[in-house]
């Protein structure tokens, strides 16, 4: 996914995701021609008039800087770094953009992220460890009582008590993993149609096509000269290589083909 939205993407995101409006409905609401609005959302180099810029910013209740992708803050004015209560290393990481800032923002604002942070804090601070210890102690006492009553290791209830013991570390890791699953899934699904997300390819058909092309190329070469089986094999590999890189082998010069071979 992109680290930042482009202006056309931001305009379309505001219209479709937030306002859930068609271009015609937006045109009726802003008095900006529908064709003009459509052009704003398509053109890579947006030539937007000042009047349209101000009208759209007012309509979406955002700043013009936000509309032009000069900032990711739509409501908050730029704050001092100290207001964020982050340490120097964290601030430096954000400044260096070591991680995708857009993805990081979506992660932090996901509705399930607060639950993840709450459970993480409980785990780090061992708030619930005593509760787990008490539960395990109860199971141990019950297991001892069964032993006193003559139960052996094959006893059904003994097995239940033995298998119900809670491993603190694994218990919390399972909870944190479950917290993250909906977040990761939602973020992935939200960006499935992004221009730089891998497309939904039928790999079985693609591989079959590659193999068929390879076989055909080898057969053509072998039919032309029965002593050139090695050349046929190499040509087939070249075709396979180009196919994987989405290169048109017919557009390669003789010198380029020789280098690849």
Question: What does this protein look like?
Answer:
There is one protein chain. This protein has 261 residues and is mostly helical. It has 3 domains: 7-67, Orthogonal Bundle (434 Repressor (Amino-terminal Domain)); 121-190, no CATH class; 203-260, no CATH class. The chain is built from 14 helices and no strands. Helix 8 (113-124) packs antiparallel against helix 11, helix 9 (129-148) packs antiparallel against helix 10 (156-163) and helix 12 packs antiparallel against helix 13 (229-244). It is flat. The relative contact order is 0.06. The mean pLDDT is 78. Residues 11-67 form the HTH cro/C1-type domain. InterPro entries: Cro/C1-type_HTH, Lambda_DNA-bd_dom_sf.
In short:
This is XRE family transcriptional regulator. With about 260 residues, this protein is mainly alpha-helical.
Provide a count of the helices: 14
Given the helix and strand composition, which structural class is it? Answer: mainly alpha
Provide the domain count. Answer: 3
Strands, total number:
0
How is the main sheet built? none
Regions with pLDDT < 50 over 5+ consecutive residues?
none
For the termini, the CA-CA separation is 35 Å
SSE pattern = HHHHHHHHHHHHHH
Strand content: under 5%
Supply Rg: 31 Å
Q: Which overall shape is indicated by the principal axes computed on the Cα atoms? A: flat
Average pLDDT rating = 78
Helix content: 55-70%
InterPro entries: Cro/C1-type_HTH, Lambda_DNA-bd_dom_sf
Domain HTH cro/C1-type: 11-67
GO molecular function: DNA binding
Protein name: XRE family transcriptional regulator
């Amino acid at each position: 996914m992109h680290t930042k939205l482009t202006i056309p993407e931001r305009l379309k995101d505001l219209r479709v995701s937030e306002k859930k409006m068609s271009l015609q409905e937006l045109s009726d609401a802003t008095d900006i021609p529908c064709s003009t609005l459509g052009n704003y959302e398509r053109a890579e180099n947006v030539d937007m008039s000042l009047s349209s810029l101000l009208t759209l910013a007012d309509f979406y209740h955002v700043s013009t800087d936000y509309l032009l992708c000069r900032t990711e803050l739509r409501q908050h004015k730029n704050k001092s770094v100290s207001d964020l209560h982050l340490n120097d290393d964290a601030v430096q990481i954000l400044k260096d953009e070591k991680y995708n800032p857009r993805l990081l923002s979506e992660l932090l604002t996901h509705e399930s992220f607060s639950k993840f942070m709450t459970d993480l804090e409980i785990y780090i601070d061992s708030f619930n460890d005593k509760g787990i210890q008490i539960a395990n102690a109860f199971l141990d006492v019950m297991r001892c009582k069964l032993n006193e009553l003559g139960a052996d290791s094959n006893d059904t209830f003994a097995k239940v008590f033995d298998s119900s013991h809670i491993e603190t570390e694994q218990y919390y890791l399972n909870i944190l993993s479950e917290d993250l699953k909906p977040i990761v899934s939602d973020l992935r699904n939200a960006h499935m149609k992004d221009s730089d997300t891998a497309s939904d390819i039928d790999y079985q058909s693609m591989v079959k096509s590659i193999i068929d092309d390879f076989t055909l190329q080898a057969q053509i070469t072998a039919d032309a000269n029965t002593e050139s089986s090695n050349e046929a094999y190499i040509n087939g590999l070249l075709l396979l290589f180009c196919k994987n890189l989405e290169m048109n082998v017919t557009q390669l010069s003789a010198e380029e083909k020789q280098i690849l071979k």
